[in-house]
Design goal:
Blueprint: H1 2-22, H2 30-37, H3 42-48, H4 53-65, E1 75-78, E2 87-92, E3 97-102, E4 112-117, E5 120-124, E6 130-133, E7 140-142, E8 153-156, E9 162-167, E10 181-184, H5 188-192, E11 193-198, E12 208-213, E13 218-223, E14 230-231, E15 238-244, E16 247-252, E17 257-261, E18 268-273, E19 283-288, E20 294-303, H6 305-313, H7 321-336, H8 347-361, H9 374-377, E21 388-399, E22 404-408, E23 414-418, E24 424-427, E25 438-441, H10 446-449, E26 460-463, E27 468-470, E28 485-487
Parallel strand pairs: 23-25
Antiparallel strand pairs: 1-2, 1-28, 2-3, 4-5, 5-6, 6-7, 8-9, 9-10, 11-12, 12-13, 13-14, 15-16, 16-17, 17-18, 19-20, 20-21, 21-22, 23-24, 25-26, 26-27
Helix pairs in contact: 2-4, 6-7
Protein name: F-box domain-containing protein
Organism: Oryza barthii
InterPro entries: F-box-like_dom_sf, F-box_dom, KIB1-4_b-propeller
Length: about 500
């Protein structure tokens, strides 16, 4: 019923609007309007709210009450230089068309996007401060300051204003840190943030934010209204998170799953799945399938580094050529090598490797020491020819009784969404516009993304039946920064939340 109404509704709305302009439109009762609006996809719902004042009132009431019932199809949120600094574009998979959304300050194109959950995105501004933003409603919530994330320390100028941050590398052991380096306000976000998650819709007033951050991909969290981040030591190497049944589940690079009870007076944690692999070779995700199974997803990437070498050096050590070759060599070998000697059950080796990795990640002495734009100061010329592409995605079902992973070749009627978003596994029967047994993906490798902000992003749709990848839309959407991200539109207005 909902899909039929959604398809018919635009022509009905157009006819109603013509009648309204002619001055002879019949008034529909608000409860009838709200019953109809509740069955619409968000793009149709937003259009309905712009028809006339009575429809607008019904739309606002519905959004405040959260009474819409239609399962919202994920959309791709991206930006376009031609659209403007404060404009985001929303590509609807249901309608196969894009919409423009005006975003609150600071400009969306100046931010990093590090997460998407419950219709909200998590962004880092040019002071490396985090904000929650609902692109549909324009609501925005400031999260606790980055200076409360261990081990970040503010550096004050003579007027007592924070103008830099100190941030050290980890050198092994829970409390062992190297001498801190100094970062400009905007540069810190390039090295500290990995991915962020929400426990629930912030418009309802109570929620948790979980943050995977460096060094060592550790976890911190904050609750609605909190003025600081709480660190969750001593675990490291986390890849993905999932809130479920009041608990935070976190997946690390060995396939191990930890469960944290953040609402307890003292945070408790337990391991619910032991490690299932010894080496880091892929990006990893997990999600609950409609069947109830817990899935682990492993995604491997490939680069065109041979072509990149030729483009960069042309056989000699021209300016920046050697530095760039060393950088891409480290990047490929440490992140996408065939076999990385990173055995996670050997803690000493683990920490030693991670320390080396983080030292490289912090720039190997290439960090700018001024407050100017890091894009102008860091040696990043001619990286346009460097390409990172998804070349394989494997899906496993977690067998908790056998404490192992079971390789599955088909998702059946399920659909996966991977990227900086909360990892989603949806039933295509509920979302008829989506392709069953397909994986929709966007790029989410912060190591590559934050170093090569101007490069083409890795997005597409993988058919698991024949392992072919197609563009999300043809002609292909072009958006390099901020990173495109999956979003389930949420038109609900905030009812009790501290926001700016």
């Amino acid at each position: 019923m909902g899909c039929t109404i959604s398809k018919v509704f635009p022509s009905f709305a157009e006819k109603f609007l013509k009648e309204a302009k002619a001055g002879n439109s019949p008034e529909l009762p608000q409860d009838v309007l709200m019953e109809i609006f509740a069955l619409l996809e968000v793009p149709d719902l937003v259009r309905a709210g712009s028809v006339c004042s009575s429809w607008r009132a019904s739309y606002i009431s519905l959004c405040k009450l959260g009474g819409y019932r239609q399962a919202q199809t994920p959309c791709l949120l991206y930006t376009s230089e031609s659209a403007g600094e404060n404009v985001a574009c929303l590509y609807s998979l249901a309608e196969k068309r894009a919409y423009k959304l005006t975003m609150p300050d600071p400009p969306i194109r100046s931010r990093y996007i590090i997460g998407s959950s419950h219709g909200w995105i998590i962004t880092a501004d040019e002071r490396s401060e985090l904000h929650l933003v609902n692109p549909i409603t324009g609501d925005q919530i400031n999260l606790p300051t980055v200076t409360t994330i261990k081990p970040v320390k503010p550096v004050y100028d003579d007027a007592g204003v924070v103008h830099k941050y100190e941030y050290p590398c980890h050198v092994g052991g829970q409390h062992n840190w190297a001498e801190p380096s100094t970062y400009s306000l905007r540069l810190l976000r390039k090295y500290i943030f990995k991915k962020a998650f929400l426990s629930s819709d912030p418009s309802m007033g109570d929620y948790f934010v979980a943050l995977i951050h460096y060094p060592l991909a550790q976890l911190s969290f904050a609750r609605a209204g909190s003025d600081k981040w709480t660190w969750l030591p001593p675990h490291t190497d986390f890849m993905d998170c999932l809130f479920e049944d009041g608990l935070l589940y976190a997946l690390n690079s060995a396939g191990e799953v930890h469960a944290f009870d953040l609402s307890a007076p003292t945070v408790t944690q337990k391991v619910v799945l032991e490690d299932v692999k010894a080496y880091i070779e892929e990006n990893m995700y997990f999600a609950r399938a409609p069947s109830g199974d817990l899935l682990q997803i492993w995604r491997s990437l490939a680069t065109n580094r041979d072509d990149y070498y030729v483009d960069q050096t042309d056989g000699d050590d021209s300016e920046h050529g050697s530095d760039h070759e060393n950088w891409i060599d480290d990047y490929v070998d440490q992140t996408y090598g065939d076999v990385l000697q990173f055995e996670l059950d050997k803690y000493e080796d683990d920490l030693e490797y991670a320390s080396e990795h983080e030292n490289w990640r912090a720039g190997d002495g290439l960090k700018p020491e001024s407050d100017e734009d890091e894009d102008d100061l860091e040696p990043e010329p001619n990286t346009d020819s460097l390409v990172v592409n998804t070349n394989m995605i494997k899906v496993f079902k977690v067998d908790f009784s056998a404490k192992m992973l079971v390789d599955i070749n088909s998702l059946g009627n399920s659909v996966l969404f991977l990227g900086y978003n909360q990892t989603l596994c949806l039933n295509a029967d509920v979302y008829p516009q989506l392709k069953p047994n397909h994986i929709y993906f966007t790029e989410d490798d912060s190591l590559y993304l934050f170093r090569c902000k101007k490069n083409r992003r890795d997005t597409g749709v993988l058919n698991l039946e024949n392992d072919t990848i197609e563009p999300i839309v043809s002609p292909e959407l072009w958006s390099n920064w901020p990173v495109p991200i999956w979003l389930i539109p949420n038109p609900r207005k905030m009812i009790s939340a501290s926001h700016n």
